[in-house]
Design a protein that fits this description.
This protein is of the alpha+beta class and 303 residues long. It folds into two domains: 126 residues, Aminopeptidase, CATH 3.40.630; 157 residues, Gcn5-related N-acetyltransferase (GNAT) (Aminopeptidase). Helices cover 32% and strands 30% of the residues. The protein contains nine helices and 13 strands. Strands 1, 2, 3, 4, 5, 6, 7, 8, 9, 10, 11, 12 and 13 form a 13-stranded mixed beta sheet that branches. The two termini are 26 Å apart. Bound molecules: coenzyme A. The site of coenzyme A (COA) has 23 residues, from β11, α8 and α9. The site of coenzyme A has 23 residues, from β11, α8 and α9. InterPro entries: Acyl_CoA_acyltransferase, GNAT_dom.
Length: 303
């Protein structure tokens, strides 16, 4: 197991997506190569298995990406079918964990389709555990969406105006008793969570602190544009416990929709824990439709 050589990037990416139908595979390989070329994928995390040490024939690949704040993202190991497939996938998974530890990652996540139980096995062997299912939703934006909500009982203050510390404190307070991956609460500091969101954020970030009429902070809204695609992510919105169940979530959502639309976005994309019924009802009630569902596996290193 070793990082792919530059000449092997196309073959390694083909191995990563070998399980997909040809038409999807070609698109995914092209996209992965483009992300390597523009620096969004670190190719030193593209690990390959060869049929013999030093040989040119690749028999498997996987991808490990370190993220800010001691986090990491791991793609499921993929090996060519044959008698050694499982052994190669297991060896790739072990190499991935060695890389996670060497790079100082304290936690990592991996996404895969619910039907892909077999590749998940290799991850489970090295300590990944099933966490939850994540629902992916999207909504078209129209010019009518670009209206700020003047009737809201809350105010929106830009991240730049209030600064990182208060924002991080309120963000963390919105995680309390949340149904969105509550198992992860307490595993990361507020600054680590903010650092993860910052990787996708332009400067100044399109993030807002939400204040109630009395001026007290009650929530946050975090948007992330995806450069050049017309798609924006609603990376997160949340209210602190005492501000929930009053119908205020819709004001945060409408504000997010309006800001993305005003900025020229044509789609707003988001994901939510499939167990988070209040959030899913809120999104589905405002025109979002679910287009994907994925299993999330979670690994936690020592320390
Ligand atoms: C998700 C969240 C923003 C919703 O905001 P809210 O103002 O509390 O929600 P609302 O009171 O408007 O309720 C939203 C919907 O969920 C429903 N709902 C509320 N509590 C519920 C519960 N306990 N079980 C099931 N549904 C519930 C409401 O009836 C409403 O649906 P409806 O419009 O079809 O009647 C808020 O609960 C929150 O911040 N939670 C913690 C952070 C979080 O989970 N963020 C989302 C990350 S994706």
């Amino acid at each position: 197991m070793s990082p792919a050589r530059p000449a092997e990037y196309p073959a390694a990416c083909r191995a990563l997506f070998a399980h997909l139908p040809a038409v999807d595979r070609i698109a995914r390989v092209d996209r992965a190569l483009a992300l390597i070329a523009n620096g969004e994928i670190d190719p030193t995390g593209l690990l390959v298995a060869r049929d013999m040490p030093g040989a040119d024939v690749l028999v498997g690949a996987m991808l490990v990406q370190h993220l800010p704040g001691s986090a990491a993202s791991v793609w499921v190991p993929r090996a060519v079918s044959g008698p050694n497939q499982r052994a190669v996938e297991d060896a790739l998974a072990r190499a991935a964990v060695a890389r996670l530890r060497a790079g100082g990652a304290r936690y990592a996540q991996s996404f895969l389709k619910p039907e892909e139980r077999l590749p998940a096995r290799a991850l489970e062997l090295v300590g990944f555990r099933f966490l939850t299912q994540l629902a992916f939703l999207i909504r078209d934006l129209t010019p009518e969406d670009a209206r700020p909500n003047f009737d809201a009982p809350v105010r929106f203050v830009t991240y730049s105006a209030i600064g990182p510390n208060l924002f991080a404190d309120v963000l963390l307070a919105t995680y309390e008793d949340s149904r969105d991956c509550p198992e992860l609460n307490g595993t990361r500091s507020a600054s680590e969570i903010v650092a993860e969101y910052r990787t996708e954020a332009p400067s100044p970030p399109p993030w807002w602190l939400v204040e109630a009429g009395d001026g007290g902070p009650v929530g946050v809204v975090i948007l992330s544009p995806k450069d050049g695609t017309g798609v924006w992510d609603l990376s997160y919105l949340g209210l602190i416990p005492r501000a929930r169940d009053r119908g205020w979530g819709k004001h945060l959502l409408r504000y997010a929709v309006a800001r993305a639309s005003l900025a020229g976005a044509v789609y707003l994309n988001l994901s939510a824990d499939a167990r988070n019924e209040p959030a899913l009802r809120l999104y589905q009630g405002h025109g979002f439709r679910q287009y994907d569902l994925q299993d999330v596996f979670w690994w936690r290193g020592a320390g």
